[in-house]
Amino acid sequence: MKPTLMLSQEDFLKKYNISEDRFTESGLDWNELASIYSDYSEYMTGLEPTAQFVMNLLMKAKDVHSVRYRIKNPEHLIDKIIRKKLNDPTLNITVSNYKKEVTDLIGLRALHLFKEDWARVHDYINQKWNQHEQPTANFRKGDLEKDGLNYFIEKGCRLNEHKFGYRSVHYVIEVQPIKEKILIEIQVRTIYEEAWSEIDHTIRYPNNVDDLIYSKFLMILNRLSGSADEMGSFLMFLQEELNSERTRYRTLAIEHQNALDKLEQTISSSKMTRAELTTAKAELERLRTPVSTGLFNFSNNPEPKYVSTLFDVATSLHGRIAPLIQSAQKLQSYSNVVKLPEFLHGVREPVKLKEVKNENIEVKEKPKAQKQSKKAVPVRTPRKKKST
After folding, report:
1. Residues 57 and 175 in one domain
2. What is the domain-level CATH number for residue 101?
């Protein structure tokens, strides 16, 4: 019995927006296409378990957010064969070789959150399966700088600048659950790239491929999805930086607190006059007041809270430790009493502002006080006369 397509040739070409002239130009035989359709309709029923197996393995990749698969529809297969033949007249696709010529009878999409996740997904795919052909990195002109493109090349991908702005990395892997080897296409992209691709495909195919108005709007949407990916990457970078700074400033807060405790012990054990002791303790309490400016908020509890900018916190911490230096210098003048611990000398430059902002703030140190005699004689300052 001669196999037939579900649709007549006329209805099929009309449905998929292929003119009679274009079909004639392809040089394909309709009866041969009908045989492919019939053979594939029976063959596709056994592809589901293989697709699910590969999907389950992909889901185990650490950086894969989600995976879905599809088995190509028989009508879509015929449409693809016609378009492939029009693009490359040298192709000879028959019922005996279509399974090798069309490599996406099973198609999977592995989605990841951030662009930076792709490299690890790429390595996972290479570890699990043999590649039937070199992976293809599709990109939009203007998306990536030269270094970014080289990154794909270094990972073994060939580059393809897509005219519609399509972004995705395509793999064709070989799977052999039975005697016959099966080719499977895996597309790896971000969630934003997937959203744009789905909208683009729904609007553009099959009837609006060359529509200028749709193409303009879809390109705008493409750029927005690219910007969304860039924002996602920046947010990930920002989170890493803030976590690093949080740890660094938590350490500084603990060192600051320890310095205050040591300074308090030194003050308490020093031979100061009552007035000097009162002044020193008041200054110490002032230094214990929580820092309320900068990126983080410090108090006796070294857990930081967000406040404003990174540069301000560096300036603030620098200003907070400067009085400690001054107090240390003052106490050093009492050379006949208790000497300050050596570590207090280490708080002179606790924050390297060059790491935060390309500036340095200098700490102006007061000249060292002259050594006093054992018995300090208070000096009275004469009162200023009121002007008449």
Report:
1. yes
2. 3.30.460.10
Residue 290 contacts residue 299 (beta carbons within 8 Å): yes
Q: CA–CA separation, 304 vs 244, rounded Å? A: 12
For the record, the structure tokens of 97 come out as 């070789």
Give the CA angle between residues 361, 366, 368 to the nearest 5°. 135
In a domain, 314, yes or no: yes
Gyration radius from the chain CA atoms: 36
Chain position carrying tokens 């100061």: 272
Both tokens of residue 334? 């009492």
Burial class (CB in 10 A: 0-12, 13-18, 19+), 119: middle
How many CA atoms lie within 13 Å of 175's alpha carbon, on the beta-carbon side?
Answer: 25
From the CB of residue 40, how many other CB atoms can be counted at a distance below 10 Å? 20
Tens digits of per-residue pLDDT, 235-284? 988 888 888 888 888 888 887 788 778 777 777 777 777 787 787 777 77
pTM of the model: 0.64
Q: Do 244 and 308 form a contact (C-beta atoms < 8 A)? A: no
d(CA 81, CA 99): 11
pLDDT, one tens digit per residue, over 299-314 is 444 444 443 344 444 4
3-state secondary structure of 131: strand
**Biggest CA-to-CA distance, the chain:** 127
Contact 115, 167 (CB under 8 A): no
Query: Number of structural domains, the chain?
Result: 2
Query: What 8-state DSSP symbol labels residue 306?
Result: B
Determine the structural domain holding residue 276 and report its residue range. Answer: 237-355
Q: How many Å separate Cα 265 from the centre of its chain?
A: 48
